[in-house]
Design a protein that fits this description.
This protein is α+β, with helices and mostly antiparallel strands. The protein contains twelve helices and 25 strands. The chain is 22% helix and 26% strand. The mean pLDDT is 96. Bound molecules: flavin-adenine dinucleotide. Flavin-adenine dinucleotide binds next to helix 2, strand 4, strand 8 and helix 10.
């Protein structure tokens, strides 16, 4: 028995991602889809981190709750949101958890290790050779050997064990010249929270708090913290731990959060202030505190407040954000200050690759909560939509690095353009970067269509390199109003080309917020299928006077579709449309065409 306990299984991968939160999932899936072998190590039974059914924080991002229309993160996040919206009409968290599991487990080259915690690193000088992993539920230990590692664990356990330079707390204003930073540095961060959900029982129900719950019925709740009667799920401001150690004091923080959360619900039920809560019963309460801050690891660039407000277009930009710098007082719930203060960002801003890898560990990328940023900038970059944008970026950079033989710094120096172009190809947004993929045959094609709504929505927009509304331009082809069946758009060339892949980017209405949430007023905006999205279509190749069908799709609700087919020699390829999900017009942002991989 003892021998079995001590046996160590060896797993080898090109890329090992530690942490299966939203950033880690995005990194792992992006990398594996580029053809490299990936191991994803997640210490809990479900994926999604703070966005999972275990913690239930909704994913916010650059669109700042829909205040910045058309800025939503496309690529992995849009794909997941549409999938969840369509396949989880009951809007239940366990179904979302299952979907995230399916998303990772359907990739044959992704080795998913659940209930498996990274607890150490085997080093070779400044390089990580293996992540040391324990899976206590199965009495197993693993060494995950890889060329490249990605720490998306939020707390940064792998990076810490590897000896990556890091810091915690708030920087002094003088350190990075940030006007919003405090005068003096300290060790404080933001606290952790647990939230709960209630159910309307249709009849009055009593709530008896446990004896250890805090009692606010006589004292009232601290200032600026008021449950809202129209959203009986609560409450991100039930927050504590910002003055403690971000990981070592987790058990105390958990106990205190439960006592506060149940005290708040007791207040809602029993203070007499909320008669509308009479029928509400506690349906779910988190048992894992969701963390906001902790260690931040230092890259070649440390993202600062000025980077977010002045919005330089870093040459190595690979991700983006747009949430305000949302900082909470370290004493959290018990602070006399409002629970958050916001430093606005004027528009979406770029995140450089230089802030997404360790400056002293040669083969370590960082994404999500533990990337390289000041405390002030982190107030914005810590949100999960931005974490997914970073995850996607480092997943791509890791894959490019494996394929080109480059470590993170080398990728930044020599392969950033390729990383950017491959990210755009997977439907990510990089501010100010357009499709210039030399392999995309559509860029050299003549584009014609059955019709158009207006000059601004002309067919040529599908190859203009941008696939969402930006700076006043729609960047979309829209067919004539009132027609869907029989509409088509065509790419043609002077001579025959060999084509084996087509990519289409449809309209899923990027204007409003689109988030799964415990808050009914947020999740009610979820929609899939989106009426504007094309449902049924064919990809056809010209064969003499005929059009030969290569692909026939029905019931589509996704924005980005990739179709691979047996190579065809043709001088024209077209998408022929049959039906939308309700709109009276066909809309398409982008159409790409590729030769077989061997011929590129
Ligand atoms: C109550 C609350 C409200 C918030 N509100 C919002 C909001 O509205 N919108 C928003 O977008 N963000 C919000 N945030 C912030 C956001 O949730 C976090 O910053 C976020 O979790 C960052 O994502 P991540 O993927 O980096 O980390 P996490 O979500 O923490 O994911 C890290 C993952 O790594 C795993 N892990 C950790 N250590 C190890 C290890 N040693 N080995 C293996 N796996 C490991 C964890 O299990 C986890 O799944 C909120 C946070 C809280 C707590």
């Amino acid at each position: 028995m003892q021998t079995e306990m001590q046996s160590m299984d060896r797993i080898t991968a090109d890329v090992c991602v530690v942490g299966g939160g939203m950033a880690g999932l995005a990194a792992a899936v992006t990398a594996v889809r580029q053809g490299v072998k990936v191991a994803l190590v997640q210490d809990r039974p479900v994926l999604g981190g703070n966005a999972s059914g275990e913690i239930r924080v909704h994913i916010s991002g650059a669109d700042a709750h829909g205040k910045r229309p058309f800025c939503r993160e496309t690529g992995i996040l849009e794909e997941l949101r549409l999938e969840n919206s369509f396949r989880n009409p009951q809007r239940e968290y366990p179904v979302w958890d299952l979907l995230l599991y399916e998303f990772a487990s359907r990739e044959p080259n992704l080795r998913l290790l659940l209930n498996a915690a990274c607890v150490g690193a085997r080093m070779d000088g400044p390089r990580i050779r293996a992540a040391l992993v324990e899976q206590p539920v199965n009495w197993r230990r693993f060494e995950v050997e890889a060329t490249t590692f990605v720490d998306c664990s939020g707390d940064g356990r792998l990076a810490f064990e590897a000896g990556a330079n890091c810091r915690r707390g708030r920087e002094a204003r003088s350190e990075y010249g940030e006007p919003g930073a405090p005068e003096t540095a300290d060790d404080c961060g933001m606290g952790a929270s647990i939230v709960y959900q209630t159910r309307d029982m249709g009849r009055p129900v009593e709530f008896t708090p446990p004896p250890w719950a805090m009692d606010f019925k006589k004292t009232g709740l601290p200032p600026h913290r008021r449950p809202m009667p129209d959203e009986m799920s609560g409450y991100w401001w039930v927050e504590t731990g910002g003055t403690r150690h971000p990981t070592h004091d987790g058990a105390e923080v958990h106990r205190e959060l439960l006592a506060i959360a149940l005290g708040v619900f007791d207040y809602v039920k029993n203070s007499g202030e909320y008669p509308e809560a009479a029928n509400l019963a506690l349906a779910w309460i988190g048992q894992l505190p969701g963390r906001r801050s902790g260690l931040r690891f230092l890259g070649d660039h440390v993202l600062r407040q000025q980077d977010l407000q002045e919005r330089p277009e870093f040459p190595d930009r690979v991700a983006y954000g747009g949430w305000p710098m949302d900082r909470h007082p370290p004493s959290g719930f018990f602070s006399p200050e409002p629970p958050a203060d916001y430093l606005e960002v004027p528009d979406i801003y770029s995140i450089p690759l230089g802030s997404l890898y360790s400056r002293n560990i040669e083969n370590l990328y960082l994404a999500g909560r533990c990337h390289s940023a000041t405390y002030t900038a982190h107030g914005s970059t810590r949100v999960m939509g931005t974490g997914i944008s970073m995850g996607q970026a480092v997943g791509m950079a890791a894959a490019v690095g494996i394929q080109r033989g480059a470590a993170p710094r080398g990728v930044r120096e020599s392969q950033v353009r390729e990383v950017q172009q491959r990210l755009l190809k997977e439907d990510a947004l990089i501010i100010g970067v357009q499709n210039e993929d030399p392999h995309d045959l559509a860029r050299a094609a003549k584009v014609t269509a059955s019709g158009k709504e207006s000059e601004a929505l002309a067919p040529a927009n599908v190859t203009n390199g941008v696939s969402r509304p930006r700076e006043g331009a729609m960047n979309m082809w829209a067919g004539a109003r009132g027609r869907t069946a029989g509409e088509w758009i065509e790419l043609s060339w002077a001579g025959a080309r060999t084509i084996a892949e087509a990519r289409l980017t449809f309209d899923t209405n990027l204007e409003p917020e689109f988030a799964f949430s415990i808050f009914p007023y947020v999740r009610h905006r979820m929609q899939a299928p989106v009426p504007a999205t094309v449902a049924d279509y064919r990809i056809e190749a010209r064969d003499g006077d005929l059009w030969r069908t290569l692909v026939h799709v029905t019931g589509n609700y996704q924005r980005h579709r990739v179709h691979k087919f047996g190579p065809v020699r043709t001088d024209a390829l077209r998408a022929a449309f049959e039906k939308t999900n309700g709109a009276d017009q066909v809309r398409l942002y982008e159409l790409r065409a590729y030769a077989p991989r061997a011929e590129r």
